[in-house]
Every structure is written in C-alpha cells, then in structure tokens.
Amino acid sequence: MNDWIERESKVYIQFFNRIPIVIESGKGCWVYDIEGRRYLDLVAGIACVVTGHSNEFIIERMKKQAEKLIHVSNLYYTKPQIELAEKLREITGLDRFFFTNSGTESVEAALKIARKCTGRKKFVSFVNDFHGRTMGALSVTWKEKFRKPFEPLVQPVAFADFNSIESLEKTVDEETAAVILELIQGESGVYPADREFVKRIFELKEKFDFLVIFDEVQTGFGRTGEWFAKDIYGFQPDIIAMAKAMGNGFPIGGVGITEEIHGRIDKGDHGSTFGGNPLACAVSLATIEFIEENNLVKNSKKMGDYFRKRLSELDFKNVRGYGLMIGVTVDDANTFVSHALKNGVLVNATSEKDIRIVPPLTIGKEEIDFAIEVFRKFDKR
Ligand code: PLP
C-alpha cells in the first residue's frame, strides 16, 4: 500500500488530502483495497455510485454501447442523447437538456444561460453553498479559502445567509440574474433549506423577475428519497444543474431548463466536445432505468429513515438529512473517519465536526447495522 502512496506523492498534483488506502475493486456497497481488506462504502464516490459498485446491468449496457459507438461530438445526432433528454423530461418536469461532464460544468452552463436570458449580471448565492471549482461555479461558492487565490472571479456575486429570509430580502434586487442554491447543502455537511425560506425565494422571484437555479448535483437521482430534492420542497426551478449520480460514477452532468427560457437562447451560446456523448448518455439511461426498476428512490427513503433512527440511538449530535443523504455532528470528524476506516467503513468528513453519509441507494438493513456497530464502538473507544 505505502509503495503506491509514495509513487502518487511524486506524480500527482497534491490538491487532495487522501485517505491512505488504495482501492482496487468494488461490489455493491463494498469496496476492496489492494491488500484484500473490505470496506462498507458510505461515501459512494461522493454520492455518485447509486446503483452500487460493479453493477452488472450498468456494465452490460456500457459494454453494448461502447462496442457500437463511443463518441462523435455534438455536431451529429445520436440516439442515447435524445432518449436521455426524454427520460429527464419525465423525471424532472423540465423541458430541455444539455449535457456536460461534471457538476461544475453544469453550474457553468446554468450561470451562462441565466445571464443570457435575463440580460442581467448579478448572481445571488448563500453562505456555505458549494457549486464547483471552475471560475464561474467557484464565484458562487461560499468558502473563501477556495475563492480567494483565484480572484478576480465572476462579478457581481452576493452571498445571503442560508435560511435567513431577512438576509435574502436584503440581497436580491432588480439587477439579480439568478439565485442559485443547494436545497440541501452537501459539501458543508448536509444542511437542508427551510421550506419557508425556499417559498420566499419564489415570492421574490415574482417581484424581481430573476431566475432560480437549483443545484441538484449532489441531491439528484434518488439520493434524498425523491427523484430530486425539489420534489421534497414542491418548487420548480427555471434551471436545474445535475451530475454525480447521473452516471453512477461515469462522468456525465446536465442542465435542464424550461421551454420559456429556451426561447431566449441562441445557437452558439454554449457547447461541449464530450458533453452528452453516446457512451455517457447510455450509462446514464441505464442508471435511471436501474433506479426505476429496483425502486431505489423508495429504498433511499426507507433506508434513510432506518439509518437516521439507528444513528439517533448513538451519541451523535444533530442527526439530519433526507433519504440516504445524511449528516451527523461529532466532536472530531477526522478521528471518527479513522476509527471507521480501521473497522471497515468509509465515511466522509466535510468539516472538523461534520460527517456525511451517502451510500449506494441499494444499501440494506444488514449493512446499516454493520455500520452502526462500528460507530457504536467509537462511543466506547
Ligand atoms: N454542486 C454541488 C452541489 C456539489 O456538491 C458539487 C460537488 O461536490 C459540485 C457542484 C461540483 O461537481 P463536480 O465536482 O462534479 O465538478
């Protein structure tokens, strides 16, 4: 193991603080390191691998498409892209879609569309929101540590306090092109928006005529016990940004918009070489079909409720979230992650005190019970 870690330290750009294991394979909710140790994966590639590792249905469909056609660019029509857009229309209720290769690119597309359609420049985002690392998405990302070294970024951007109606009212105005938000803040540790807060955004939208962008990169595709977090809240955005679970870990993202917005877009406003290629779209379609056929949205809700109930039996502060997007607060998140790792469970620390749990949506009670017993030992460490 150490040999590989040493080799990485010489050739990889050191952007990440990594967990010191080299993962070689996976099956379902479990992954295996190169020494054959197994771990229950409650990270799922950061909320991506919704149908489980090495899912045979997905692999078959991936193989079939790869044998036929991998890439031709958006200069041509391909069947999987059209089928995926039709499917997304069904599950999101939005009208038209464009495909990208990541979450940050989906946010970039959303911001560009918002500026083009409104003719306005200003974006409003929220304290603790995370939207990605490219220049536009980074501009609407809260954490100063991420933003500061790369200024000047896209301007003007104003950050309102999350869940503060008073702060929101002071921040939006007639110059606002769009309000962008995560309905459940993921990278900051799974903190949901209040319904009243979201409702007020939509009332202010009526008054000032800005667009609302829901960043559902992390919350989409069944993660929260609904297809999308917007279904929990009952509000429809003008623009939705998606990625992560969309391809079960295969890189694909997307942006969805209303027909009304589409009427204000011109050819050439945006583009991508790889975005929405036939292989990525076929994998995404297979992922959505697997979620549908195996009732994974329902399982996410049911197992999420069970997981939270069991976590509440332990000594955690503030067990929260929806479906299988779960956050808990501990005194020292890094020590907790190390304890879990040593005992065969992968969890992710999003801050010094916040733990995020986002397993494959195929997880069952037995696996949850396994995690709970590992966490219980931490109580008595
Ligand atoms: N938006 C949200 C809500 C995210 O959670 C993330 C990634 O964690 C992103 C955007 C950026 O996605 P990516 O890392 O695929 O660029």
Automatic annotation (TrEMBL):
Lineage, broadest ranks: Archaea, Methanobacteriati, Methanobacteriota, Archaeoglobi, Archaeoglobales
CDD domains the record matches: OAT_like
Database matches in Pfam families: Aminotran_3
Annotated SUPFAM superfamilies: PLP-dependent transferases
Pathway terms, separated by semicolons: Amino-acid biosynthesis
Species of the source: Geoglobus ahangari
Cofactor (UniProt): pyridoxal 5'-phosphate
PANTHER family, per database record: ACETYLORNITHINE AMINOTRANSFERASE, MITOCHONDRIAL (PTHR11986:SF79), AMINOTRANSFERASE CLASS III (PTHR11986)
A GO BP annotation: L-arginine biosynthetic process
Alphabetical list of Gene3D superfamilies matching this protein: Aspartate Aminotransferase, domain 1 (3.90.1150.10), Type I PLP-dependent aspartate aminotransferase-like (Major domain) (3.40.640.10)
Protein name, per record: Aspartate aminotransferase family protein
Gene Ontology MF term list: identical protein binding; pyridoxal phosphate binding; transaminase activity
InterPro entries hit by this protein: AcOrn/SuccOrn_fam (IPR004636), Aminotrans_3 (IPR005814), Aminotrans_3_PPA_site (IPR049704), Class-III_PLP-dep_AT (IPR050103), PyrdxlP-dep_Trfase (IPR015424), PyrdxlP-dep_Trfase_major (IPR015421), PyrdxlP-dep_Trfase_small (IPR015422)
Similarity section: Belongs to the class-III pyridoxal-phosphate-dependent aminotransferase family.
Keyword annotations: Amino-acid biosynthesis, Aminotransferase, Pyridoxal phosphate, Transferase
